[in-house]
Amino acid sequence: MTEEISKLLLTPEEMTAVDAAAAASGIDSYALMERAGAAIAAALLRDFPAVRRAAVLCGPGNNGGDGYVAARRLADSGVTVDVFQMGEPARLKGDAARARDNFPIATLPLESYQPRSGDVVIDALFGAGLARNVPASVRDVIEQVNGTSVPVIAVDLPSGIDGRTGAVRGAAFAASRTVTFMTRKPGHLLMPGRELCGELEVFDIGIPGRIIRAEKKQQIAENRPELWRQALPTGGLETHKYKRGHLVVFSGEASKTGAARMSAMAGLKAGAGLVTIAAPEDAIGENAAHLTAIMLHPISDEAALRDWLHDERLQTFVIGPGFGVGEKARQFVAALSERHLVLDADGLSSFKDAPDELFSQFSGKPRLVLTPHEGEFGRLFPDIAADAAMGKIEKAQAAAARANAAIVYKGADTVIAAPDGRAYVNTNAPAWLATAGSGDVLAGIIGALMAQGAPAFEAAAAGVYMHGEAGMRAGKGLTAEELATQVRPL
Fold first, then answer.
1. Is pLDDT above 60 for 402?
2. With the C-alpha atoms ordered 406, 408, 409, 413, is the resulting torsion angle positive or negative?
3. What is the signed CA dihedral for 196, 200, 204, 207, rounded to 10 degrees?
4. How confident is the model at residue 39, as a pLDDT?
C-alpha cells in the first residue's frame, strides 16, 4: 500500500463502494476477510503476548466475519479463545457465514460475556458503517467492559462510533488499539471517535489503489502540508517587505488591546512583511508601550477607515480579537468587504443577529475566513448547528457554502472547509492549545498567509496546521504570548 493511499480519508459509503468494486473486479472477497482477520490476530499477539483469553465479540455482518477469522488464527497460535456472538450465528450470510463455519469452536451469546483478568477483547461487533444507536444488549456489554481495565482491540472502528461523524451512538468502546483497513474514515479523526480509537493502525489487505481512488468522491482529507504547500508564498532573492504582504489587525479600546497584539505578533512571526495595529486614539499609547517591530495607525471610526483604505497596498485585515461586539464592528466589516478579511471572536459575535448581512457582502472569489468555535458557529449558523443528521465536516461544508467563506470550525478536531466542498480535519493540535488567546494567535497566522498571497482556504488550512506546530513547540502550560513567539513559517 502506498503512503498516498494510507493517508486518504474515505467515508463509510465510499468504503462500501470500494468493497463492491473490488468484488466486481474479480478480487476474492473472502481472501480480503482472511487478511483482515489475520491482521487483527497479529496485532493482539504483538501487543498483548501475555493474554490469557481472547474474548472475540462478533456482530451480524462482515465485521463479525473478520472477528471469526481472527479467533481461528489465535486459536491456531495456542491462545485460549471464546467467541461471543450477537444474535444467532446461523443468521450470518456470505463471507461472514463462511468465516463462522471455519471456526471449530462453539460460540456463546454476547450477553453472557463477563470480563475477567487476563482478557483481551476483540471488538468485531460493528464497523464504520454504524449509523444508529447500538442495541441495549450491546450497550450493556460496552459499559461493562469500559468499567474494567480489560484492553480492547477494535476492528475498523470501536463499536458505537459513527464512522461518518465520530459521534457516539448510545455507547462506544474505549479501545486500546484500532485496526482498520486500506484507509481511515472521518470517525477515526473526528472527536470523540479519535480519542476512543486508541492507537490507530491502517492495514493493507490488498485492494488496489486504483479502485480506492476511483471510488473517492468527496474532497475530505486530514489537514497535511502536501495539500496546500504549493499555494503558500515562497520568497525569492529579490523579496522585500512589501512583497511579503502588509497585515492590519484592529485593536479594541485601551483596556482591551492585548488580543490584537498577540494576533499581530503571530502575523509577523508567520511571515508577513509588515504588520500594523489599527487602534482607536485612546488605545495608541497602551499599544505603543508594548510594541517595537509592529507599527501603529490611529483609526477611530468608519470614516477614518474608509479614508485609509485609499492606500491600495492595504489588502488583508484581522478584526475581532478584543475589538468589541456591536455596530462599529459591522461598519468596519462593510468597509472591508472588497478586501481579504479574517473575522474572529467579537467580529463574529457582532453578526449573531444578522449573519446574512455579513455573508451578502463577500460574494465572488472567496476572500473571507471565519474562525468560529462551537458557540460562535451556533450563533452564525443556528439551523446548521442544530441539524443532528449532520456531522462536523458536513456542517462546516454547509456553512462555507452559505457564507462563501473559508470556515475554521474550531475544536480539538478543527475542520477547515471551503465553499467548493473541500474539507480538511486537523489532527496536530495538542490539548494545551485550549487556553485564552490561542484563537487570537491563529487569526494572526491566517491573516499573515493571506497577506502574502495565499488563497483564503489554503491560508486557513495552513494557519491551523502552523498553530498546532507552534503549540507543540511551546509545550504544556503555554500562554498565548508564548505561543505567538513559537510560530514559524513553513
1. yes
2. positive
3. 40
4. 98
Query: Per the confidence metrics, is the pTM higher than 0.70?
Result: yes
d(C-alpha 340, C-alpha 343), whole Å: 10
Alpha-carbon Rg for the chain in angstroms? 26
Q: Stretch 410-431: mean pLDDT, rounded? A: 98
Cell of residue 206, nine digits: 490488498
Q: How confident is the model at residue 131 (pLDDT cuts 50, 70, 90)?
A: confident
Query: What value does the mean pLDDT take over residues 182-206?
Result: 97
In the structure grid, which three cell numbers stand for residue 16, read together? 462500501
d(CA 355, CA 470): 32
pLDDT at residue number 237: 43
Burial (CB count within 10 angstroms: exposed 0-12, middle 13-18, buried 19+), residue 323: buried
Residues 423, 428, 433, 438: is their CA dihedral positive or negative? negative
Reported as a pLDDT band with limits 50, 70 and 90, residue 239 is low
Point out which residues pair with 16 in neighbouring strands: none
Amino acid at site 439: G
